[in-house]
Design brief:
This protein is mainly α and 185 residues long. The chain has two domains: 2-138, no CATH class; 143-185. The chain is 64% helix and 0% strand. The chain has helices at residues 2-10, 14-22, 29-39, 47-57, 90-102, 105-127, 134-138, 146-182. Helix 1 packs antiparallel against helix 2 (14-22) and helix 4 (47-57) runs parallel beside helix 6. The protein is elongated and about 90 Å long.
């Protein structure tokens, strides 16, 4: 990450320079995520790695979490292959990587990995289900009552009245307008 900070400092973008000034390096991702939870800061790491860590360590038994991974990355990509200079197979690797991206295979593989991680996380939380969590014990889901449904019900009644009035208006005025249009025959 020090490489990114030095690149940000040398950038012409004021936003990236500001980010570089505010960066604080932490020894582990768990410590960085802990700071994000407790000190209202952010932690930057590879996207898939962050999603796996959050699913493994920071997801409640009900599947909810207090953390959010942004939809877009700050940098285009963190990973690449390292090859020897003038490698004869470089063009083939480039074509394969392009085919993987354009075919959506990278996203498919990421989704498959996250499905496995989520499944294992649910199984682990189920096994630990007999241990009481203070947070999950205090959170109770309230069922909807008539007070909650009052607004949609009133809207339904209002729309039914208006549509009935429109229908009756068309039915009663239809013969009158037809006579007027075609003359009195």
């Amino acid at each position: 990450m020090e490489l990114f900070a030095s690149s940000f400092r040398q950038s012409e973008s004021q936003v990236l320079k500001t980010i570089a000034e505010r960066m604080v390096f932490v020894p582990t991702s768990k410590e960085g995520i802990g700071q994000a939870l407790n000190e209202f800061s952010v932690h930057m790491r590879e996207r898939l790695f962050m999603e796996v860590i959050i699913e493994d360590y920071y997801t409640n038994r009900d599947g909810s979490t207090n953390l959010y991974v942004t939809q877009e990355s700050l940098l285009a990509d963190f990973s690449a292959f390292v090859l020897i200079r003038d490698a004869p197979f470089k063009n083939k690797i480039d074509k394969c990587m392009m085919a993987f991206h354009t075919g959506g295979l990278i996203d498919k593989w990421k989704d498959m990995v996250m499905d496995v991680v989520r499944r294992e996380g649910r199984q682990r939380r189920r096994l630990l289900g007999n241990v009481d969590d203070e947070d999950s014990a205090n959170v109770k889901i309230k069922p909807l009552s008539m007070v909650h449904m009052q607004g949609p019900f009133l809207l339904y009644v209002l729309c039914a009245i208006v549509s009935t009035a429109a229908f009756l208006g068309e039915v009663t005025q239809g013969p009158f307008l037809r006579k007027k249009r075609y003359g009195s025959e």
